Amino acid sequence: MGQIKSALRRQTEGIGARRIYEDLRDQILARTYGTHGVLPSSRSLAGELGVSRSTVTVAYEQLAAEGFIEVRHGARPRVAKSVVGGSKSRAVDALPTHVVPLSEFGKRLRKDPPKWTAPSGHPAVNFRYGDLSPADFPVLAWKKAIIAAVTRRPARLAYDDPSGALRLRTALQGFLWRSRSVRCSVDQIVVVNGSQQGLDLCARLLLDAGDRFVMEDPGYLMASHTFSSTGAAPVPVPVDRDGLQTARLAGIDARLAYVTPSHQYPLGGVLPIARRHELLAWARQRDACVIEDDYDSEYRYDTKPVPPLHALEGGHNVVYLGTVSKTLSPTMRIGYMVVPLALVSAFAAAKQIMDRHTPLAEQEALASMLESGAYDSHMRRVRRRNAERRQTLLDMLRRRFGDRVRIEGAAAGLHLVAWFDDLPQRSEEALVRTARSKGVGIYPISALFDRRRQGRARPDAVGLIMGYSALETRQIDKGCRLLAAAIDEIREQ
Ligand SMILES: Cc1ncc(COP(=O)(O)O)c(C=O)c1O
Fold first, then answer.
1. Is residue 129 very low, low, confident or very high in pLDDT (cuts 50, 70, 90)?
2. 228: which residues sit within 8 A by CB, 6+ positions away?
C-alpha cells in the first residue's frame, strides 16, 4: 500500500505548473473550452490533478499574462475573448496518422467512412434531408414527460433490461398495432439508439465477412456502410418508381435484404403488395432475413397505407425497424425493432454487450408521451405542417421550373426527388457549388447510386433529394428562387 502511495506521489510530482500551463494552452487553442469558455476553478483542478492549489495558480497566472485567459476575483477563469483557436491542438497535429494497426473492421471503415457535415457549414436555406424544424419539437409535452421521468426517486439504480424498458415496449406494442398493423409480443421489441443501432445489430448478428446482402439501388448509404463494415458485399438491385424490382432477385443468393418498402429511400416508391410477397418468398426460400426500415411511414399524403412486410405472413423472416428521428428529433437517438421470436435472445445479448441498454429516462419519457396521447396529438400537428411544406415545395418547383422539373416520390415522407432532365449529370458539381454560393444547400441523388452495379449506369440527368421538414414555407419559396437562379447560371455556361 505504502509503495503504491509513493508511486502515485512520484507520478503527480511530475506535474508542475509548466506542464499544466502547456496542456491548458494547447487545449484552449484546440477550442476544448470553446470561445470564451470557462475553465475549472484552481481548487477543483488542483484536487483532480493531485497537486497543490498554488501550482495551478502559477499556471493560470502565466496563461493570463500571455492573454490566453481572463481572471477575475471570485470567478472561474475564462478563455480570453481575443483568443482565436485552430481546429486541432498541436499535440493532435503531431500524431502520426496510424500508430496502432487497425482490425479488419477498422481498416474497412477507414477506407470507406460514412460522411457527416458539421452544422457550421450549413447554408441559409438547406434542403438537406433528415433535419426537422426546431419549431415543431413538442417542447412542453417532452418537458413534462422527461421531468416526470427524472424527478421521481427511482425504485432501484441498477442496469435495466437490454431489450428496453418494459413500459416503453408495452406502449410501443400498442402503437405499432394501431398505427402500422404490426402484431408482435412485447418480448419481440428491442429498444435501440436510433434505427442506426438496429442496423448495426443486424449486421453483427446476421452477416459474416464474405457474405452478400441485397441493397436497394439507389439506397440508404448508412445501411450499406453498416452492412459492408462486417466484410459482407452489397448486391445492388435496381429500384423503379414502385420501389425494389423484386423480379430481379431471382438467382441472387444473399443472407439479408435491406428495404424501405413504405417510402423507398431515396426515390420514394411504395412497394406494391405483389412485390412484397415476392420479396418474402425469396427470403423464405433462402432463409434470408428482410430488414424492413419503416423510417418515415407516419407521413403519407396521396397514398393509401400498405401493410408493412412484417404484417404479412407473420413476419417470420422480417426484422422491422422504426425510429423517432422523423417524428420527434434525430438527436434523441431512440428507435425500436421488432425481431423474430427465435432471434430475440441473440438481439438482446448483442444490445447488452454494445451499451447495456438505451438510457432509461428517455425511454420512460417516450413511454409516457405514447400513453397519454401527447405523441399522437404531436403527430397530428407535424403531419399537417409537413403537408403544408410539401405542398409549398411542389407549388414552387412548378412555378419556377414548369415542365423542366420532374418530381418523384412526393406521396409520402419528408422529402421528394426533383429531376432536371435537361441538365446533364456532369453539371451537377458546378450546380451544387453555384447554389451554395447563393446560400442554398442542394443534394444530388447520384451519390446514392451504387457505382458497382453492372448494366444501367447512373442517371444522366441532375436529380436532387429535397428535404423540406426543417424549412418554413417562406424559406422554401426563397430556396426555389435561388435554385432557379443557380440553374440559369449553369445553363448559360
Ligand atoms: C432510410 C433511413 N432510415 C433510417 C433513418 C433514421 O435513422 P436513425 O433512426 O438512426 O436516426 C434515416 C434518416 O435519415 C433514413 O434516411
1. very high
2. 108, 112, 234
